Amino acid sequence: MPQRKCALKAMRSSKKKRVNNLKIKNNIKKLIKNFIKLISTKKLEEAKKLLPSIASSLDKAAKKKIIHINSAKRKISRLALKLKST
């Protein structure tokens, strides 16, 4: 357990950031799962509408440094490739 006031405050703020980052990551995972489910059920029009929102949320997460920017770009690219190949 931290002894100093500043260490306690840092611990509290890091906990808040961790919870917030987990919410964002889980939301992205849900969107990607829904996207893959739409592709597997051949609902391509709905998948096309969902792809920009996934790309936007991945870019926002990368901008806030929740995920690495190259990781976000790679995921967007692979999802677009999946959509195009079906």
Helix/strand layout:
Layout: H1 5-40, H2 44-63, H3 69-85
Helix pairs in contact: 1-2, 2-3
Brief characterization of the structure:
With 86 residues, the protein is mainly α. It contains three helices and no strands.
Overview of the molecule:
It contains 3 helices and no strands. It is an all-alpha fold and 86 residues long. Helix 1 (5-40) runs antiparallel to helix 2 and helix 2 (44-63) packs antiparallel against helix 3.
Roughly how many Å is the radius of gyration?
A: 17 Å
Total DSSP helices: 3
- Number-wise, the strands total 0
Q: What fraction strand? A: under 5%
List the defining traits of the structure above.
86 residues, mainly alpha, 3 helices
